[in-house]
Amino acid sequence: MAWQPAVPVEAARRVACIGAGVIGGGWAALFLARGFDVTVWDPTDDAEQNVRRLVDLAWQPLSDLGLADGAARDRLTFAPTLEDAVADAHFVQESAPERLDLKRRVLADIDRATPPGVVIASSTSGYGVTEMETEVQKVPERMIVGHPFNPPYLIPLVEIAGGQRTAAEAVAWAGGFYRRADKFVLSLQREVPGFVGNRLQEALWREALHMLAAGEASVEEIDAAIREGPGLRWALMGPCLTFHLAGGAGGMAYMLDHFGPSLEAPWTRLTAPDLTEALRETLVTGCDGEAAGRSVEALVRQRDEQLVALLKARSGR
Amino acid sequence: MAWQPAVPVEAARRVACIGAGVIGGGWAALFLARGFDVTVWDPTDDAEQNVRRLVDLAWQPLSDLGLADGAARDRLTFAPTLEDAVADAHFVQESAPERLDLKRRVLADIDRATPPGVVIASSTSGYGVTEMETEVQKVPERMIVGHPFNPPYLIPLVEIAGGQRTAAEAVAWAGGFYRRADKFVLSLQREVPGFVGNRLQEALWREALHMLAAGEASVEEIDAAIREGPGLRWALMGPCLTFHLAGGAGGMAYMLDHFGPSLEAPWTRLTAPDLTEALRETLVTGCDGEAAGRSVEALVRQRDEQLVALLKARSGR
């Protein structure tokens, strides 16, 4: 029989957070702020103290953004066992340390104790569901990845994906649930190690590590180069649409024709792919789709307006 | 005799912009807004029309940020020849198309026509001064790179660097001049292809191209993954200090010990460097330096406050 959710998305009220470090505690703060009951279980001794401190820290920014009706910090409880934490949960978010053997064991434990109609999401930074759920015996159909970015209570993105045995309905239910919690949901079609956000972030991070190791730049220079440069643009548009605007009225097509040859230059240690006609077409069509009829000039106006707002916000003006 | 500037930084009043596409025109807008006289020369027929349009577009955001005393769009003029444009300039910004043969020729032409005490800066995205100034005969000592990010009138970063024949005084003068124009100056100690910002940006961009070519993600997914995820953090802190905050109270040291093993994972096509003891130390010490005595908790408070301001600014609230 196909997998069926225990409750519709709109009826979900109780969330269990298994593993409560910076990420698990951050999830707890978010779910509380969105009006859910949250039960935390973590095997470490000082978990309750750490999570309460983290939630207290997060509550001010979350309040500034606006809390859901009925949201309250005292709807946070701590369970003595994993089984207690998940027994009546409507959704489970696992945030154990990033080790494959540990993830496999914890996810199998959670699966055993959680009612079958409840989705179990892993915060893993890069493992796929298929490789993590090898020891899951009861309901592999409800296992998904729900990968956030730190801090989960403020950064909108969550990347979700199922594995080979995951039911499409479970991924869809999780998407709806995260949207109810005000997340921006990216539902991936394929299991790619590192998903999308971390693959891109990691490429930049590895080049930064290489530059540090080679003495080409300092930590401070690397941070400044991103923070005062492309980082500002990425907060608004992402890399593709940003370059669409660098090409003038010709957009991405002009940009690729102008800067394409630079791909051969020894910028970064990552070898460039061939800029084939098909890849060029994918980029141009994709940017046209995102532009949705807006001219480059209209996009420039919008970017500049937002950049000014961002620069003012950043400087406290 | 050592190179000497024609005027002190504070006395510079006139800027020549040679080459006036999106970047050159953007520089013109910035210099006008900071109260300089700007003379543009570009060999294309519609350059004047395009630059005036670009300056008009940029003027509203620049006004929102605050214009310098006396700043005015009618202090923009167009020269009939390169020689006329640079004859009485106090600073020259070259923004010709990104082709090495062209850069060599244009920079040699500019050098011939520009008074010897005037710095000539190239907007090149990645070439070094040493490889660009091979045909410069008069004063190679004043040739520098002054690499902006689009749009130059709003993104603070400018990366500056000299070549093997550049005088340290010329680099220092340019740094002072750009700071007078409200730029954030990163003065590089070495000639590295792509400098710092573009090396890092390009690593991410190449991974994005690979993912597109392999059908692992769409243009829209790539942009959303950055814009709703790490891009928001990078606008505030850059990649190193961001990770310092992901480690909880243990900071960067904890982060490296926890996620170091993930460097071996096949996230991105860029091979990771060995996380040697020396590299670990460089990162930990660098982040401690940037933190400047602020605890991770204090940095988290600051990040969250700015993230909220940024999220509100982005959504127009």
How would you describe this structure in keywords?
homodimer; 317 residues; alpha/beta; Rossmann fold; 2 domains; 8-stranded mixed beta sheet; 8 strands; globular
Summed up, what is this model?
With 317 residues, chain A is an alpha/beta fold. In chain A, 48% of the residues lie in helices and 12% in strands.
CATH homologous superfamily title of the largest domain in chain A: NAD(P)-binding Rossmann-like Domain
Biggest protein-protein interface?
A-B, 120 and 120 residues
The name CATH uses for the topology of the largest domain in chain A is Rossmann fold
Question: What oligomeric state is this?
Answer: homodimer
Please give a structural write-up.
- The structure is a homodimer of 317-residue chains.
- Chain A has 317 residues and is α/β, with parallel strands linked by helices.
- Helix content of chain A is 48%, strand content 12%.
- In chain A, helix 2 (47-65) links the parallel strand 2 (37-41) and strand 3.
- Chain A starts with 13 loop residues before the first strand and ends with a helix.
- The mean pLDDT of chain A is 95.
Which helices and strands occur, and which strands form pairs?
The structure is a homodimer of 317-residue chains.
Chain A: E1 14-18, H1 22-33, E2 37-41, H2 47-65, E3 76-78, H3 82-86, E4 91-94, H4 100-113, E5 119-122, H5 129-132, E6 143-148, E7 157-162, H6 168-180, E8 184-187, H7 197-213, H8 219-227, H9 230-246, H10 251-259, H11 277-291, H12 296-314
Parallel strand pairs in A: 1-2, 1-4, 2-3, 4-5, 5-6, 7-8
Antiparallel strand pairs in A: 6-7
Helix pairs in contact in A: 1-2, 9-10, 9-12, 10-11
